[in-house]
Amino acid sequence: MRDTILYLKNANIYQKNLLILSNVNLKLERGAFSYLIGKTGSGKSSLLKVLYGDLPLLEGEGGVVDIDLVSLKNSEIPILRRKLGIVFQDFQLLTDRTVEKNLIFVLKATGWKDKFAIGERVEEVLDSVGMGTKKHKMPHELSGGEQQRVAIARALLNHPALILADEPTGNLDPETSNEIMILLKNISKKNHCAILMATHDYSMIKNFPAKTIKCEDGKIFHGDSEELFVINE
Ligand SMILES: Nc1ncnc2c1ncn2[C@@H]1O[C@H](COP(=O)(O)OP(=O)(O)OP(=O)(O)O)[C@@H](O)[C@H]1O
């Protein structure tokens, strides 16, 4: 289906030969926002890793953007990564170069050659996350929230149809976390980009309601934030 940006069907998720999640069925449409929740060790990161090609999909079916995960070869992983934006808890910026050079590095590594186009795209994504004036700063000169904004800008460089975010607010204070959530929600709306975000942070889920995919006891359960709070309160 054209509007399905991500799906898993009867998928089993393994770490080495340990079965982490069984019979996973999920689907995300273009522009959708869903949380991936569950206790520590319940399999959220493992699930995301399968989706960005860091773990193989050994059993079941799955696809991300227009790439089939079952037949994905190692040599095709860079193609998959180019179609995705990935955001991590610890930002993962290159610490030895400026914000601008971090972004240029990714554009060049993903095949961009035209200097003018590269410069323009860097400006565009930095402006879109409110970091237009910070391009000459080194990562260590930025706050955690600013570093995460740059990491989000980096994720946007190649116009992804899907962003996978693994605890993107995990290292941030509540106020900064709210700002990052507003940014991610706006990106999802404006760019019609689907976002799957792993989080532990229930106050975030309460403030920004969305569908939830919960990992528990080796399985996943679909719901939404409201149900979650009815059950918990
Ligand atoms: N590299 C690995 N090798 C073997 N087992 C692993 C590896 N990484 C994770 N696991 C195991 O897989 C299970 C799921 O871990 P995972 O990191 O996916 O959980 P999580 O829900 O993302 O946890 P957290 O919220 O703490 O990040 C855990 O039992 C963990 O010990």
> How many β strands by DSSP?
10
- CATH topology of the domain at 4-92 and 160-232, which one? Rossmann fold
Helix content: 25-40%
> What compounds sit in this structure?
adenosine-5'-triphosphate
Any guess at the CATH architecture of the domain at 4-92 and 160-232? Answer: 3-Layer(aba) Sandwich
Strand order of the largest sheet: 6-7-8-3-9-10
Instruction: Please count the helical segments.
Output: 8
Given this structure, which CATH class of the domain at 4-92 and 160-232 is correct?
Alpha Beta
Write structural notes for this entry.
The model has no long low-confidence stretch (mean pLDDT 93). Helix 4 crosses helix 5 and helix 5 packs parallel to helix 6. The protein is built from eight helices and ten strands. Helices cover 36% and strands 27% of the residues. It starts with a strand and ends with a helix. The strands form two sheets. It has a six-stranded mixed beta sheet with strand order 6-7-8-3-9-10, with helices on both faces. A four-stranded antiparallel beta sheet has the order 2-1-4-5, covered by helices on one side. Adenosine-5'-triphosphate (ATP) binds next to strand 2 and helix 1.
Keywords:
alpha/beta; Rossmann fold; six-stranded mixed beta sheet; four-stranded antiparallel beta sheet; 36% helix; 27% strand; binds adenosine-5'-triphosphate; ABC_transporter-like_ATP-bd; ATP-binding; Cell division ATP-binding protein FtsE
State the gist of this model.
With 233 residues, the protein is α/β, with parallel strands linked by helices. The protein has eight helices and ten strands. It has a domain at 4-92 and 160-232: Rossmann fold (3-Layer(aba) Sandwich), CATH 3.40.50.300.
